[in-house]
Amino acid sequence: MSRATPLVAIVTPVYNGARYLPETLECVQAQTYPTIVHVVLDNASTDETPEIIRSFTNQRVPLIAVRNDATLPLEENWNAAVARVPAEAKYIRILCADDTMTLEAVSRMVAVAERNPGVGLVGCEHHRSGATEPSGWPRDRERFASQEALEHILLGKGMLLATHVLMLRDAAYLSLPLFRPGLLASDTEACLRILTKYDWSFVHEDLAMTRDHPHSITSIHAAPIQAQFFEGLVLLKEFGPFAFSPERFAEVLARFRRHYRRRILRWRFSGHSKLYVHHMACLREIGEAPTILDNVDALVDLVACKAGLRPGWTGHPFFSES
Asked: Which domains does the chain have, with CATH numbers?
Protein backbone atom coordinates (compact mmCIF):
# COMPACT_ATOMS: atom_id res chain seq x y z
CA MET A 1 0.00 0.00 0.00
CA SER A 2 1.33 3.45 -0.86
CA ARG A 3 2.50 5.58 2.03
CA ALA A 4 0.64 8.45 0.38
CA THR A 5 -2.66 6.71 1.04
CA PRO A 6 -2.59 5.05 4.46
CA LEU A 7 -5.53 2.80 5.26
CA VAL A 8 -8.47 4.47 6.99
CA ALA A 9 -11.05 2.40 8.87
CA ILE A 10 -14.52 3.94 9.03
CA VAL A 11 -16.31 2.47 12.06
CA THR A 12 -20.11 2.43 12.31
CA PRO A 13 -21.81 0.82 15.32
CA VAL A 14 -25.51 0.46 14.67
CA TYR A 15 -28.66 -0.67 16.46
CA ASN A 16 -32.02 -0.59 14.68
CA GLY A 17 -30.69 2.02 12.28
CA ALA A 18 -32.62 1.04 9.15
CA ARG A 19 -34.16 4.49 8.67
CA TYR A 20 -30.88 6.33 8.07
CA LEU A 21 -28.26 3.59 7.61
CA PRO A 22 -28.45 3.39 3.78
CA GLU A 23 -27.44 7.04 3.45
CA THR A 24 -24.56 6.52 5.88
CA LEU A 25 -23.28 3.44 4.04
CA GLU A 26 -23.63 5.18 0.68
CA CYS A 27 -21.52 8.16 1.73
CA VAL A 28 -18.67 5.82 2.69
CA GLN A 29 -18.84 3.99 -0.62
CA ALA A 30 -18.72 7.35 -2.42
CA GLN A 31 -15.55 8.63 -0.72
CA THR A 32 -12.85 9.84 -3.10
CA TYR A 33 -10.10 8.60 -0.80
CA PRO A 34 -8.80 5.33 -2.31
CA THR A 35 -7.88 3.14 0.68
CA ILE A 36 -10.79 2.71 3.06
CA VAL A 37 -12.39 -0.19 4.86
CA HIS A 38 -15.80 0.12 6.53
CA VAL A 39 -16.34 -1.72 9.82
CA VAL A 40 -20.06 -2.06 10.64
CA LEU A 41 -21.10 -3.75 13.89
CA ASP A 42 -24.80 -4.57 14.18
CA ASN A 43 -25.77 -4.66 17.84
CA ALA A 44 -28.40 -7.40 17.35
CA SER A 45 -30.86 -5.13 15.55
CA THR A 46 -34.47 -6.25 15.20
CA ASP A 47 -35.36 -4.10 12.18
CA GLU A 48 -34.11 -4.27 8.56
CA THR A 49 -30.55 -3.30 9.51
CA PRO A 50 -29.03 -6.74 8.69
CA GLU A 51 -30.55 -6.78 5.21
CA ILE A 52 -29.36 -3.24 4.51
CA ILE A 53 -25.81 -4.12 5.54
CA ARG A 54 -25.82 -7.20 3.31
CA SER A 55 -26.90 -5.10 0.35
CA PHE A 56 -23.65 -3.12 0.58
CA THR A 57 -21.28 -6.09 0.39
CA ASN A 58 -19.00 -6.58 -2.64
CA GLN A 59 -18.82 -2.87 -3.44
CA ARG A 60 -15.79 -0.62 -3.93
CA VAL A 61 -15.11 -0.01 -0.24
CA PRO A 62 -14.63 -3.36 1.55
CA LEU A 63 -17.18 -3.99 4.28
CA ILE A 64 -16.30 -5.78 7.52
CA ALA A 65 -19.78 -6.62 8.75
CA VAL A 66 -20.28 -8.25 12.14
CA ARG A 67 -23.44 -8.94 14.15
CA ASN A 68 -23.63 -9.40 17.91
CA ASP A 69 -25.55 -12.41 19.22
CA ALA A 70 -27.14 -10.20 21.87
CA THR A 71 -27.51 -6.47 22.35
CA LEU A 72 -24.55 -4.97 24.22
CA PRO A 73 -24.49 -1.76 26.27
CA LEU A 74 -23.67 1.26 24.13
CA GLU A 75 -20.03 1.79 25.12
CA GLU A 76 -19.31 -1.94 25.04
CA ASN A 77 -20.66 -2.14 21.51
CA TRP A 78 -18.59 0.84 20.38
CA ASN A 79 -15.46 -0.72 21.89
CA ALA A 80 -16.24 -4.00 20.15
CA ALA A 81 -16.58 -2.14 16.85
CA VAL A 82 -13.22 -0.40 17.23
CA ALA A 83 -11.63 -3.75 18.11
CA ARG A 84 -12.54 -4.94 14.58
CA VAL A 85 -10.33 -2.31 12.94
CA PRO A 86 -7.62 -4.03 10.85
CA ALA A 87 -4.13 -3.87 12.33
CA GLU A 88 -2.76 -2.21 9.19
CA ALA A 89 -5.11 0.80 9.47
CA LYS A 90 -3.36 4.04 10.37
CA TYR A 91 -6.49 6.09 11.04
CA ILE A 92 -9.96 5.49 12.50
CA ARG A 93 -13.02 7.56 11.67
CA ILE A 94 -16.14 6.89 13.76
CA LEU A 95 -19.29 7.50 11.69
CA CYS A 96 -22.60 7.16 13.50
CA ALA A 97 -25.30 5.21 11.69
CA ASP A 98 -27.47 8.33 11.29
CA ASP A 99 -24.76 10.77 10.15
CA THR A 100 -23.01 11.35 6.84
CA MET A 101 -19.88 13.03 5.47
CA THR A 102 -19.01 14.74 2.22
CA LEU A 103 -17.30 12.84 -0.59
CA GLU A 104 -13.96 14.55 0.09
CA ALA A 105 -14.14 14.26 3.89
CA VAL A 106 -11.63 11.46 4.44
CA SER A 107 -9.22 12.84 1.84
CA ARG A 108 -9.22 16.30 3.41
CA MET A 109 -8.78 15.04 6.97
CA VAL A 110 -6.04 12.55 6.12
CA ALA A 111 -4.14 15.24 4.22
CA VAL A 112 -4.08 17.43 7.32
CA ALA A 113 -3.08 14.52 9.55
CA GLU A 114 -0.27 13.44 7.24
CA ARG A 115 1.36 16.87 7.13
CA ASN A 116 1.13 17.24 10.92
CA PRO A 117 3.09 14.44 12.64
CA GLY A 118 2.30 14.28 16.34
CA VAL A 119 -1.38 15.07 15.81
CA GLY A 120 -3.70 12.44 17.30
CA LEU A 121 -7.06 13.92 16.31
CA VAL A 122 -8.33 15.87 13.31
CA GLY A 123 -11.68 17.64 13.52
CA CYS A 124 -13.75 19.45 10.90
CA GLU A 125 -16.65 21.81 10.52
CA HIS A 126 -20.07 20.17 10.24
CA HIS A 127 -23.64 21.15 9.59
CA ARG A 128 -26.80 20.46 11.52
CA SER A 129 -30.36 21.33 10.51
CA GLY A 130 -29.06 22.75 7.24
CA ALA A 131 -26.57 25.23 8.72
CA THR A 132 -22.83 25.01 9.34
CA GLU A 133 -22.14 25.30 13.06
CA PRO A 134 -19.43 27.73 14.18
CA SER A 135 -16.28 25.92 15.28
CA GLY A 136 -14.52 28.67 17.20
CA TRP A 137 -11.08 27.53 16.03
CA PRO A 138 -8.88 30.31 14.56
CA ARG A 139 -9.12 30.02 10.79
CA ASP A 140 -5.50 31.00 10.16
CA ARG A 141 -4.24 27.80 11.80
CA GLU A 142 -4.84 24.08 11.41
CA ARG A 143 -2.70 22.77 14.30
CA PHE A 144 -3.04 23.34 18.04
CA ALA A 145 -0.78 22.03 20.79
CA SER A 146 -2.28 19.56 23.25
CA GLN A 147 -2.66 21.92 26.21
CA GLU A 148 -3.98 24.76 24.08
CA ALA A 149 -6.54 22.50 22.42
CA LEU A 150 -7.81 21.19 25.75
CA GLU A 151 -8.11 24.72 27.12
CA HIS A 152 -10.06 25.90 24.07
CA ILE A 153 -12.44 22.93 24.26
CA LEU A 154 -13.11 23.10 28.00
CA LEU A 155 -13.72 26.85 27.85
CA GLY A 156 -16.04 26.55 24.86
CA LYS A 157 -13.68 28.49 22.58
CA GLY A 158 -13.22 25.60 20.17
CA MET A 159 -15.72 22.93 19.13
CA LEU A 160 -14.96 19.25 19.63
CA LEU A 161 -17.59 17.04 18.03
CA ALA A 162 -16.29 13.59 18.88
CA THR A 163 -18.46 11.82 16.31
CA HIS A 164 -16.76 13.67 13.45
CA VAL A 165 -13.04 13.28 14.10
CA LEU A 166 -10.25 11.32 12.47
CA MET A 167 -8.19 9.43 15.05
CA LEU A 168 -4.64 8.23 14.74
CA ARG A 169 -5.02 4.52 15.48
CA ASP A 170 -1.93 4.45 17.71
CA ALA A 171 -3.40 7.31 19.75
CA ALA A 172 -6.80 5.63 20.05
CA TYR A 173 -5.21 2.37 21.20
CA LEU A 174 -2.93 4.04 23.75
CA SER A 175 -5.46 3.58 26.56
CA LEU A 176 -8.07 0.87 26.21
CA PRO A 177 -11.01 0.53 26.35
CA LEU A 178 -11.34 3.57 24.12
CA PHE A 179 -14.90 4.35 25.23
CA ARG A 180 -15.41 4.59 28.98
CA PRO A 181 -18.35 2.52 30.30
CA GLY A 182 -21.10 4.36 32.12
CA LEU A 183 -20.47 7.75 30.50
CA LEU A 184 -22.84 9.00 27.79
CA ALA A 185 -20.11 11.38 26.63
CA SER A 186 -17.66 8.50 26.35
CA ASP A 187 -16.74 9.59 22.81
CA THR A 188 -15.85 13.08 24.02
CA GLU A 189 -13.93 11.65 26.97
CA ALA A 190 -11.95 9.40 24.62
CA CYS A 191 -10.98 12.39 22.46
CA LEU A 192 -9.97 14.51 25.44
CA ARG A 193 -7.87 11.61 26.73
CA ILE A 194 -6.07 11.42 23.40
CA LEU A 195 -5.43 15.16 23.57
CA THR A 196 -3.50 14.76 26.82
CA LYS A 197 -0.82 12.99 24.74
CA TYR A 198 -1.25 14.31 21.18
CA ASP A 199 -1.88 17.58 19.36
CA TRP A 200 -5.10 18.60 17.58
CA SER A 201 -5.69 19.67 13.99
CA PHE A 202 -8.80 21.15 12.45
CA VAL A 203 -10.02 21.29 8.85
CA HIS A 204 -11.83 24.57 8.23
CA GLU A 205 -14.30 23.02 5.80
CA ASP A 206 -17.82 21.67 6.32
CA LEU A 207 -17.17 17.96 5.80
CA ALA A 208 -19.90 16.25 7.82
CA MET A 209 -23.59 16.21 8.68
CA THR A 210 -25.02 15.60 12.15
CA ARG A 211 -28.64 14.47 12.04
CA ASP A 212 -31.00 15.57 14.80
CA HIS A 213 -33.98 13.27 15.29
CA PRO A 214 -36.08 11.91 18.18
CA HIS A 215 -34.54 8.43 17.99
CA SER A 216 -30.90 9.47 18.41
CA ILE A 217 -28.81 8.49 21.44
CA THR A 218 -28.75 12.12 22.51
CA SER A 219 -32.53 12.48 22.25
CA ILE A 220 -33.33 9.21 24.01
CA HIS A 221 -30.65 9.00 26.70
CA ALA A 222 -28.82 12.30 27.23
CA ALA A 223 -31.37 15.08 26.76
CA PRO A 224 -34.06 13.79 29.17
CA ILE A 225 -31.58 13.76 32.09
CA GLN A 226 -29.62 16.85 31.01
CA ALA A 227 -26.52 14.67 31.10
CA GLN A 228 -24.23 17.43 29.85
CA PHE A 229 -24.20 19.10 33.27
CA PHE A 230 -22.99 16.19 35.38
CA GLU A 231 -20.76 14.78 32.68
CA GLY A 232 -19.43 18.27 31.98
CA LEU A 233 -18.29 18.37 35.62
CA VAL A 234 -16.72 14.91 35.33
CA LEU A 235 -14.81 15.90 32.19
CA LEU A 236 -13.69 19.22 33.62
CA LYS A 237 -12.34 17.56 36.77
CA GLU A 238 -10.58 14.87 34.73
CA PHE A 239 -8.99 17.04 32.06
CA GLY A 240 -8.86 20.51 33.58
CA PRO A 241 -5.49 19.79 35.25
CA PHE A 242 -4.01 19.11 31.79
CA ALA A 243 -5.41 22.36 30.36
CA PHE A 244 -4.84 24.91 33.12
CA SER A 245 -2.40 25.95 35.80
CA PRO A 246 -3.50 24.86 39.32
CA GLU A 247 -4.72 28.37 40.11
CA ARG A 248 -6.59 28.77 36.84
CA PHE A 249 -8.13 25.30 37.16
CA ALA A 250 -9.45 26.10 40.64
CA GLU A 251 -11.07 29.28 39.30
CA VAL A 252 -12.63 27.56 36.27
CA LEU A 253 -13.90 24.64 38.35
CA ALA A 254 -15.45 26.99 40.90
CA ARG A 255 -17.27 28.89 38.14
CA PHE A 256 -18.69 25.71 36.67
CA ARG A 257 -19.77 24.34 40.06
CA ARG A 258 -21.70 27.54 40.78
CA HIS A 259 -23.31 27.44 37.34
CA TYR A 260 -24.33 23.80 37.83
CA ARG A 261 -25.65 24.39 41.36
CA ARG A 262 -27.87 27.20 40.15
CA ARG A 263 -29.30 24.91 37.50
CA ILE A 264 -30.01 22.24 40.15
CA LEU A 265 -31.81 24.81 42.30
CA ARG A 266 -33.86 25.88 39.29
CA TRP A 267 -34.93 22.29 38.68
CA ARG A 268 -35.87 21.86 42.33
CA PHE A 269 -38.12 24.90 42.46
CA SER A 270 -39.59 24.81 38.94
CA GLY A 271 -41.33 21.44 39.02
CA HIS A 272 -38.48 19.31 37.65
CA SER A 273 -38.04 17.19 40.75
CA LYS A 274 -36.90 14.10 38.83
CA LEU A 275 -33.98 16.01 37.35
CA TYR A 276 -33.13 17.41 40.77
CA VAL A 277 -33.16 13.99 42.42
CA HIS A 278 -31.16 12.39 39.60
CA HIS A 279 -28.40 14.98 39.63
CA MET A 280 -28.15 15.10 43.41
CA ALA A 281 -27.73 11.30 43.46
CA CYS A 282 -25.01 11.49 40.79
CA LEU A 283 -23.18 14.24 42.67
CA ARG A 284 -23.31 12.33 45.96
CA GLU A 285 -21.62 9.37 44.28
CA ILE A 286 -18.57 11.49 43.45
CA GLY A 287 -18.54 13.59 46.62
CA GLU A 288 -19.85 16.74 44.90
CA ALA A 289 -23.30 17.15 46.49
CA PRO A 290 -23.74 20.88 47.27
CA THR A 291 -24.34 22.08 50.82
CA ILE A 292 -26.63 24.94 51.84
CA LEU A 293 -23.60 27.23 51.96
CA ASP A 294 -22.59 26.09 48.47
CA ASN A 295 -26.03 27.04 47.16
CA VAL A 296 -25.95 30.44 48.88
CA ASP A 297 -22.52 31.05 47.35
CA ALA A 298 -23.85 30.12 43.90
CA LEU A 299 -26.76 32.56 44.21
CA VAL A 300 -24.55 35.39 45.45
CA ASP A 301 -22.25 34.68 42.52
CA LEU A 302 -25.21 35.02 40.14
CA VAL A 303 -25.82 38.56 41.41
CA ALA A 304 -22.14 39.36 40.86
CA CYS A 305 -22.28 37.91 37.33
CA LYS A 306 -25.40 39.89 36.44
CA ALA A 307 -23.74 43.05 37.77
CA GLY A 308 -20.70 42.42 35.61
CA LEU A 309 -18.43 41.94 38.62
CA ARG A 310 -17.65 38.31 37.77
CA PRO A 311 -17.68 36.33 34.52
CA GLY A 312 -20.51 33.85 34.06
CA TRP A 313 -19.93 30.33 32.79
CA THR A 314 -19.55 30.05 29.01
CA GLY A 315 -17.44 26.90 28.63
CA HIS A 316 -18.10 23.20 28.28
CA PRO A 317 -20.87 22.06 27.96
CA PHE A 318 -21.37 25.27 26.00
CA PHE A 319 -24.21 26.67 28.06
CA SER A 320 -23.93 30.33 29.05
CA GLU A 321 -25.52 31.75 32.18
CA SER A 322 -29.25 32.29 31.93
From this structure: 8-221 (3.90.550.10), 226-306 (no CATH)
